[in-house]
From TrEMBL:
UniProt-listed Enzyme Commission number(s): 3.4.11.2
Gene: pepN
CC cofactor: Zn(2+)
Source organism: Aliishimia ponticola
Residue ranges of every copy of the Peptidase M1 alanyl aminopeptidase Ig-like fold domain listed in the record: 430-521
Enzymatic reactions: Release of an N-terminal amino acid, Xaa-|-Yaa- from a peptide, amide or arylamide. Xaa is preferably Ala, but may be most amino acids including Pro (slow action). When a terminal hydrophobic residue is followed by a prolyl residue, the two may be released as an intact Xaa-Pro dipeptide
Cited Gene3D superfamilies: 2.60.40.1840, 3.30.2010.30, Neutral Protease Domain 2, Peptidase M1, alanyl aminopeptidase, C-terminal domain, tricorn interacting facor f3 domain
Domain of life: Bacteria
Name listed for the protein in its UniProt record: Aminopeptidase N
Family according to the record: Belongs to the peptidase M1 family.
Key word Metal-binding present: yes
């Protein structure tokens, strides 16, 4: 059944307050609710309340027993035309809840995940984000720690009460109970509120909480300074949970995290892990204003909170670390995850207009492209106008459930701009292409930009969008003759002129990646790589050179491009540049990105040929840089104690990039030394990866497993690395063997993804001509779906690019998809995904 944005109707009642009592028991938890409803003008009964997998024990209205009509989706009951109190008692089975949605048990710990529509698995309720109410929660049980939203409101032997004064939708409800230990900190807000901060973990993990706590404090200070937003409760709790479908969840005052997104220590976490944890802590904290205080009217508006909050966490990371490095890594991620979505059968607008299962729309398009849209808006109106509009948003909409129209209106009101054309970014699916034409005559440079968007199922008749095109012009000597400007491309084709120039300038296009588009332009990349002042465009020049060299190798077997090798060598040797940036410069486009490029130019990608070309390029780079590898490696060793900051991380990134190249020349000798002497996970894991690649990984893998067998998060790395680094012929078999390992537990989403997700990330292994990986993936999706539909449906995206490949592969993938689709009782989540992908 499909739900449409256009069918939105407000709920007929106010929910004045909610009282919940939980009597915890693994298989028979009782949830007693007392909810006061008041009809809005014109409301007419009966009342429908959502409810799924609930055993109704009793129901009363104003103290009298009632007998609602119950279906698998909820209940319908006749109600008075005046305010009334609804009381219900239901029984639920947290231990049997393997879907990890609603109230469930994770390693003996009670926890909840309600977004988007999980609260209906806890009790009967109008489970929609525009119904906001004040919750009081009593938790009864023998568990040592019992948490819910808001402020503590009393506790005694076997019970604790919580009261959340801020009205909220049910998706922000949370409860946690278990044997937990807190690391406690303190924050005083700008207006003087003392806030107790806790990071709760299971016993044994206390040593991995300090970083998260610090990140939280930094986030709180940053949101005050940059957005003027203060925290609004006396306590802020974060809990680490081992079994969690996503990264984390912003429940009011009680953020629940996948343990992988919060637990950190130098010995067990890489620099990349630290950075991700810092960003997710910030993201969930920032939701307190962009999501919780101002929430979404309906789930079609998901990008209202997610796009904005991703944008805010990216700003935070740019401020805490290196802004250019953050921008480049975000673009890499956007191209890896969002572009394939936008250009394949799952394409949907940033604000979708229909869905079957909302959990399938927590996508890179809603999150990451949603954040790009905010970034474009900011670039178009300018920083000051952005601040003014956002302040107006908070003033005008605090306490409300809002829409994208509300968001754009504050920008129109604050700036006087008409944003009706800009709004197409929210309604049109697909990645626009921008082509560039240039002319030069009489000292005037003419730049013509042409935009186009391919029609898709959701956007059959695309219209021109507003594309902020940041650019600069460079002189032949490398000087900047026109500094960064933002051109506003609004027409399908539009020209811009720059006069008074002595010579034909060199265009530095799409600086900072100012719009999520594909640029079709034969730039002078060697020149830009050597001279561009914009760090993004300079990096992009290296990337583009690498890409065209690789594509030439794949198509014609040619050797890597000499211009690229020389340009990149100069950058890598340039000690004046940030080591993190130099490491990024050395990165090659992913094999999947190369496959997409081949497909777009009308070729059929051969995954093995792509793999071979990338390996050959690595080998050539190593030879080309052979005189420098050791020196740069040595010069970027960090002495002194480990710090997870950008400076040290950059050095380790460059040193590890050197090690990876060195391994191609020394057969793993240096990697073995680094492995044996590593004092942190960044060094240990990088060395292990090099050893596996050099076919020298056997002992180190065994040693690693022996060292870390007690640490689930580190063992996830051990599982995934073996798959990622396997030879293409062997990737599926490696994954299959690992699924038979005694520590493989497919019910744990992190472990499931560490093997099956890694297999899908191994481009040449997943798309091996045998088709074995497709079948293995289908087997596991079929097996997981009855237990955990959300994680299964998400994993189905591994097939979204299937139309890129040759007819034989397509046939094998179609067979895998059809086999999944034919499974009796397949979940709504997975059915929707398979249907959309298969229809391509
Ligand atoms: N709102 C959460 C976040 O972005 C994501 C939760 C999504 N969970 C889900 N089951 N759909 O931080
Ligand atoms: Zn979020």
């Amino acid at each position: 059944q499909t739900i449409y944005l256009k069918d939105y109707e407000p709920f007929g009642w106010e929910v004045e307050d909610v009282h919940l009592t939980f009597r915890l028991a693994p298989n028979t938890t009782r949830v007693i609710s007392r909810i006061r409803f008041a009809p809005k003008p014109g409301a007419r009964g009966p009342l429908f309340l959502h409810g799924e997998a609930l055993k109704l024990i009793s129901a009363r209205i104003d103290g009298s027993d009632v007998t609602p009509e119950v279906t698998p989706q909820g209940l319908t009951v006749a109600v008075p035309g005046a305010p009334f109190t609804w009381e219900a008692e239901v029984e639920i089975d947290p231990e049997g809840n393997t879907a990890l949605e609603g109230l469930y048990l994770s390693n003996g710990m009670y926890c909840t995940q309600c977004e988007a529509e999980g609260f209906r698995k806890i009790t009967y309720y109008p489970d929609r984000p525009d119904v906001m109410s004040v919750f009081t929660v009593r938790v009864e049980g023998n568990e040592l720690v019992k948490l819910s939203n808001g402020n503590p409101a009393g506790s005694g032997a076997g019970w604790a009460e919580w009261h959340d004064p801020w009205p909220k939708p049910a998706y922000l409800f949370a409860l946690v109970a278990g044997d937990l230990r807190a690391t406690t900190g303190q924050f005083t807000t700008a207006s003087g509120r003392d806030v107790e901060l806790n990071v709760w973990v299971r016993p044994g993990d206390e040593g991995k909480t300090a970083f998260a706590l610090e990140a939280l404090i930094k986030s709180m200070a940053w949101d005050e300074k940059v957005y003027g937003r203060e925290y609004d409760l006396d306590v802020f709790n974060i809990v680490a949970v081992d079994d969690f479908n996503m990264g984390a969840m912003e429940n009011k005052g009680l953020n629940i995290f996948n343990s992988s997104a919060v637990l950190a220590s130098p010995e067990t976490s890489t620099d990349a892990n630290f950075e991700r944890i810092e960003a997710i802590i910030a993201h969930e904290y920032f939701h307190n204003w962009t999501g919780n205080r101002i929430t979404c009217r309906d789930w079609f508006q998901l990008c209202l909170k997610e796009g904005l909050t991703v944008f805010r966490d990216a700003q935070f990371t740019s401020d805490m670390r290196s802004a250019p490095v953050k921008r480049i890594t975000d673009v890499i991620d956007l191209r890896a995850r969002q572009f394939p979505e936008d250009q394949g059968p799952l394409a949907h607008p940033v604000r979708p207009e229909s869905f079957q299962e909302i959990n399938n729309f927590y996508t890179a398009t809603v999150y990451e492209k949603g954040a790009e849209v905010i970034g474009m808006l900011k670039r178009l109106v300018g920083d000051q106008a952005y601040d003014k509009a956002v302040s107006l948003y908070f003033d005008r909409h605090d306490g409300q459930a809002c829409t994208i129209e509300d968001w754009l209106t504050v920008f129109e009101d604050a700036t006087g701009r008409d944003l009706s054309q800009f709004k197409r970014w929210y309604s049109q699916a697909g990645t626009p292409r921008v082509t560039v034409e240039e002319g030069f005559a009489d000292g005037t440079y003419t730049l013509t930009l042409v935009q186009s968007l391919a029609p898709s199922a959701t956007t059959p008749d695309p219209q021109p969008q507003v594309i902020p095109f940041a650019m600069g012009l460079l002189g032949r000597d490398g000087s900047e003759v026109v500094g960064t400007q933002v051109l506003e491309l609004t027409e399908a084709r539009q020209s811009f002129t720059f006069g008074g120039l002595a010579e034909q300038p060199v265009l530095s296009p799409l600086r900072g990646f100012s719009a999520p588009v594909i640029l079709d332009y034969a730039a002078d990349n060697a020149f830009l790589l050597a001279h561009d002042t914009d760090p993004f465009t300079r990096w992009e020049a290296a990337r583009t050179l690498a890409k065209s060299s690789l594509l030439t190798t794949i198509r014609h077997g040619a050797a890597p491009d000499q211009g690229y090798l020389e340009g990149i060598a100069a950058v890598v040797r340039d000690a004046a540049l940030d080591p993190a940036y130099r490491a990024l410069m050395l990165g090659l486009p992913s094999q999947s990105e190369l496959a997409a490029a081949l497909h777009h130019s009308g070729d059929i990608p051969d995954p093995q040929a792509i793999y071979d070309a990338v390996k050959a390029m690595g080998r050539t780079l190593a030879d080309h840089l052979s005189d420098d590898l050791r020196d740069i490696y040595t010069a970027h060793q960090v002495d002194g104690p480990y710090a997870p900051d950008a400076e040290q991380a950059g050095k380790r990134a460059l040193a590890n990039a050197m090690l990876s190249l060195l391994t191609k020349l020394d057969d793993g000798a240096q990697a073995q030394i680094q492995y044996d002497n590593a004092t942190n996970m960044t060094e240990q894991l990088a060395a292990l990866a090099c050893l596996i690649r050099a076919d020298k990984g056997e002992d180190a893998l065994a040693d690693f497993a022996a060292q870390w067998s007690g640490d689930r998060l580190v063992m996830d790395k051990w599982f995934s690395l073996q798959v990622l680094e396997a030879k293409p012929d062997n990737a599926a078999a490696t994954a299959e063997d690992l699924t038979e390992h005694p520590d493989f537990n497919y019910k744990n989403p992190n472990r499931f993804r560490s093997v099956l997700g890694a297999l899908a990330m191994h481009h040449a292994g997943f798309h091996h001509e045998s088709g074995y990986a497709y079948g293995l993936m289908a087997d596991w999706l079929i097996r997981l779906d009855p237990l955990n539909p959300q994680t299964t449906a998400r994993m189905c995206t591994v097939f979204q690019t299937w139309k890129r490949y040759d007819p034989v592969r397509q046939e094998m993938i179609a067979a895998a998809l059809d086999r999944i689709a034919a499974e009796p009782g397949l979940s709504r989540d997975t059915t929707e995904m398979i249907t959309r992908i298969r229809q391509a």
